[in-house]
Queue: 3 jobs
Job 1
Amino acid sequence: MEDVTNGLKDLSVDQILVYLLKTKSAPGDSYEEHFQTLSNGRFKPIFVPVLEHRFRDEPLRALKRHAERFAFASGSEADARRKATNNPAKKYGGIIFTSQRAVDAFASIVAKLDPLKINMLFDKDMPLYVVGPATARGVRALNLPCPVVGEEAGNGDALAKFILDHSKTLSPDVTHLNNHKLPLLFLVGEQRRDIIPKTLESEDLPATDRISVQEVIVYETGEMATFEEDFMGLLRAAKTARVKEQWVIVFSPQGCGAMLNALGWLDEKSAKFSPAHRDVLMGSMEIRIATIGPTTRDFLKEEFGFEPDVCAEKPSPEGVGEGIMKFETQ
């Protein structure tokens, strides 16, 4: 709890608190950096972890073995003495990342590989598909020789369509082995949407365009037992510090109920949002809610009857920041 409230210690007068309901990304968090510089330091971002993530050791050990056995490697290039050859051990035509946790999980594999062999173990033309700027940044930090593409997609549906188009531009040496199209490796948590596999493997596509997807669950996610208590403690500390304005940035449906309950905005009987509860509890203090996209917005509306103040047009630091700034200047 003390670690969470420490962020209030250097709060400047009239700064707007921004609660980021997420775990801070490593090595750097683009949301924190964006809000620290937005509007000349007017906003003060504080992380309030909602979810805890646990890596699955066995799948990660298996993927490490695959990497060491050249599952991601290219064949041998031609030289003066020999022709180019395929890599018979190659298993994948690319890797898909749609979450920072998946990036972190794969980073734990890369960290255990011989750094002198990285360029040998990974095909320099094998695409690493990412869903947005934050994920792209994390993947690039792995320092693999592979191209990182797809960051403009913004969501799984758009990324799947991008992959279908992009794969057609790749050499068969990257996408095929012995005239057989290689699958894409999709690193996921146990809770995920299936839009990417469904789109890439759709029978509505010509057989030559379909791409097999091999999903590997590398982490598990659950709501942190201390989240509601930590968030309530922050709200109390902010009230004591007489903070006038606060924003809560919600990144996923998980934790929405605990967030609204910590705010005291839920009716005890119906477990739905109560405007009367909010008005009584807030007084002169303003607390606004922003979501990073329509999935979380719709969940709040459908489950709790609550309409957030802002829904980002793009699920990115810039998208959230633009939504908040537009609201602030209304």
Note: The first strand starts at residue 16 and ends at 21.
Job 2
Amino acid sequence: MKESFSELRAETYSPEYISGLRWSIVILFGAIAVVLLGFFMDAVSDPSTDTASDMIFLLLFLIAGSLAGWLAYEMIRNQDEKISGLLINHQGILFLNTNEKVLSAIKYYDLVKSGNPYTKDIFSEFASHGKYSDFRKNLYVHEKDENREPKKKMVNLDVIPLKNRYDLIGHFLKGIKMFRPDLKIDPEVYKDFYLDEKTLRYTPENLKSDMKVKIITIAVIIVVIIAFRYFF
């Protein structure tokens, strides 16, 4: 069984491209911080400016400087602790560093049933962060928590920039069907990740069709809003 299940690796952008892009962002925030510091110094030396203006420039400088410093730290910190690759095989999803060491994993045999008759074992939904939600859906599974109770867990593949996100999700679902046929997959998962329900392969045509529907819907909403604003 294991031999019949092929491996699939994440396809990412070149390390040089990603590194260059990240350092460009660091330099940009650093330059903004320097400019804001200059504005702050000018404001402090000018007696005609009020304290509120001084504090605004100082606050913006601290924000930009902190972002630049944090991003630079993330760039130079120990690469062995950072995820740089993904591998899906007969075990599950393996999150790897640059030396191919497994940093974490979501294994098929660690997955459990949801324990809720109204919730599928494998499903998709928008990830919420406080009051806000992501614009696209994420895949969720269930694992046992410290009390041995089922707890949903997001399959976060966006820890690195991916070219084949939907292919990876489809391959992971294929592994679940092969190694954990007892788990139930919500049919909406296939639609949300543009997968063929039979082959579990990514179908770009479904994505294009979905994008067209969303664009048309947004356009109609905008037209309706403009119509109500100016004609009613």
Note: DSSP finds five helices and seven strands in the chain.
Job 3
Amino acid sequence: MKEPRQDAEEPLHDRALLLHGQKRNKVLTLKEVQRYGRDSFSDPDYIRLYGMTPPQWYARGVRLLGRTAVECTRDPLADCIGRDVATVAESLPTGTQCLVVDPFAGSCNTLYWILRHVRLSRGIAFEFDSKVYELTRRNIGVLDRTIDLMHGDYESMLDPHHLPRTDAMIIFVAPPWGTALDEAEGLDLRRTEPPITEIIARVGQTYPDRQVLFVIQVYEKVNAGSLTELHAKLDWSLLKIYDLNVAGRNHGILLGTKGWTP
């Protein structure tokens, strides 16, 4: 009698299994990464990171937890974000150095792509979770961009007194969405963990004399009330949605500034 294929005995590798199920805190094998891509998106190479396909980055020693595979920003989107951030940053005075900050590092892939596109930039990231921190610290060691990854909370560790006053800041704001995303009402920027509206306000208070560019990751549909509240905290803003997925399920960014206008 023919033995059943092992794949047929394995659970569906979808968002629920990797983000909330038994694979959440497990380091995925290459087979599991590709199975997630195949089962969920009909593409075994769906999790493209750092300019590489899964077989390429896995061969270089990059490893991901199940939840990071779900939550990371993949190359196609991260590349688009990096290009648009660079376009806005070009409006800064010639020769301006940019400190790019990722308060919720995860894989650091979006930060990596921003650094690839923004001239005269350097990166710093913060990750509170010990498991994610250790894996990402090793992962970014194989990249062609230097990222200073720190273990801890960004609010207590990003000291404004240690930053050159002439540097502009680019802050990628992508905290966990949690229950903030409602398919009918859209993403409520006041209900992320922590709320995006609070992050913007705190940064403005901490760096009142800085030229700051916020890069806020959003969903195709954003709660109107929260968007209005956020616009009021910025000197200039621009919403961009990237047509990379099926209609209604695309991601984008809200670009916004404090202390200057492009």
Note: The first helix runs from residue 6 to 9.
